[in-house]
Specification:
Blueprint (H helix, E strand, L loop, with lengths): L5 E6 L4 H13 L4 E5 L8 H7 L3 H5 L2 E3 L2 H4 L5 E5 L4 H4 L3 E2 L1 H4 L1 H4 L5 E5 L8 H4 L4 E3 L12 H26 L29 H4 L7 H17 L8 H15 L3 H19 L7 H4 L1
Parallel strand pairs: 1-2, 1-6, 2-3, 4-6, 4-7, 5-7
Helix pairs in contact: 1-2, 1-9, 11-13
Length: 285
C-alpha cells in the first residue's frame, strides 16, 4: 500500500527548522509528495537540512508555488487543518482519525493543507477544502507547532493505511493444508469449484472526481453570473460563495457534471447578452 497520491501542502511556512522537521516526518511515515506555498524561509538552507537529518532528499524534491490554488492543481479531494473554533466557522470540524481515511481511499491525487505557524489558514484558503480537521488538544494550550501537527496527521494516515492493508490480506481466502486427509486414495476425484471471473476494471473503478482547479473555474463563472443578475452583492459575495463551495463539495461532482453546469451558466450568460426588448416596451416608453 502507498500514500504516494497524498500531497502535503504547507502555506507560507516561516521557520526553516519547521520545514526540515516536516521533511523528516514525511519520510518517517512514507509520504513523498509535498508542496510549499510562498515559503517565508529558505527550505534548502542549513537550518532546514539540520532538522531534516536523513530526509534531505525530500528537501531537494520540494515543490514551491506562489498560490494555494497552484498547489492544489489536479487534486480531487482536499482536507485543511485549522485551529479556529467551530462556532466561528459554522462548519463541522473533524478529528484526524475520522476524516483522513477519506484521503487514503481516493484513487486520484488528494491534498492535506497546513497553515502558517502564527495564524493558520485564512477563511478564503479554508474554502478550498472539502473537509476541515482539528487536532484535539487541551484547552489550557490548544496551539500546536506546525511540525507536530503534521506528525500527528501523518501518523494517522500511516496507521489507517496499514490497517486497510491488513484487513485486505485477512480477507484473502487461504487453504488449510493440515485439513487435507493424506490417506485419500488416488482414485478419488477432487471436486472442482468453478472459478468466477473477476469483474473488469471498468465495472469496478469509481467515477473520477472533478479536481479543485476545474471546480475553481466553475465557481468563478458562477460568481460572475450571480453578480451580474444581482443575486450576489460585492460586499457579501465571498460569504455566499463559500456556502456554494461547501454545497458542491459535498456533491463530489465529476468533470462531466461540472462541464454540464458550466454549459448552463454559459447559456444563461448568452441569453442575458442577447435578450430582446419586450413587446410593446417602446410604446410604453
Amino acid at each position: 500500500m502507498s500514500l504516494s497520491h497524498i500531497r502535503i501542502v504547507l502555506v507560507e511556512p516561516a521557520g526553516a527548522l519547521n520545514v526540515g522537521s516536516v521533511a523528516r516526518v514525511l519520510k518517517n511515515f512514507g509520504l513523498q509528495q509535498w508542496v510549499l506555498v510562498n515559503p517565508q524561509c529558505d527550505p534548502w538552507g542549513e537550518e532546514a537540512r539540520r532538522m531534516a537529518v536523513h530526509a534531505s532528499d525530500l528537501l531537494e524534491r520540494t515543490t514551491i508555488v506562489s498560490t494555494l490554488s497552484d498547489a492544489l492543481v489536479g487534486c480531487a479531494r482536499v482536507i485543511a487543518t485549522t485551529g479556529i473554533d467551530r462556532t466561528t466557522l459554522n462548519v463541522p470540524l473533524e478529528p484526524p482519525r475520522q476524516a483522513l481515511p477519506w484521503l487514503i481511499e481516493a484513487q486520484q491525487p488528494v491534498a492535506l493543507i497546513f497553515g502558517r505557524e502564527d495564524r493558520g489558514l485564512t477563511r478564503t484558503e479554508l474554502n478550498y477544502a472539502h473537509r476541515l480537521v482539528q487536532v484535539p488538544t487541551s484547552s489550557d494550550y490548544a496551539s500546536l507547532n506546525l511540525a507536530q501537527a503534521v506528525a500527528i496527521c501523518c501518523y494517522e494516515l500511516a496507521c489507517q493505511n496499514q490497517a486497510d492493508h491488513t484487513s485486505r490480506l485477512a480477507a484473502v481466502p487461504t487453504v488449510n493444508l493440515s485439513s487435507i486427509d493424506q490417506r485419500l486414495t488416488p482414485q478419488i476425484t477432487p471436486q472442482i469449484t468453478p472459478q468466477i471471473p473477476p469483474l473488469t476494471r471498468e465495472a469496478t473503478a469509481p467515477e473520477a472526481l472533478a479536481t479543485i482547479d476545474v471546480l475553481d473555474a466553475y465557481y468563478h463563472q458562477l460568481e460572475t453570473l450571480l453578480l451580474q443578475i444581482g443575486y450576489l452583492y460585492p460586499h457579501t459575495a465571498a460569504q455566499r460563495m463559500a456556502k456554494f463551495r461547501r454545497l458542491f463539495g459535498r456533491a463530489q461532482l465529476s468533470p462531466q457534471e461540472v462541464a454540464m453546469l458550466r454549459g448552463i451558466l454559459s447559456q444563461m450568460t448568452w441569453a442575458l447578452q442577447h435578450r430582446s426588448t419586450p413587446s410593446g416596451a417602446d410604446k410604453r416608453a
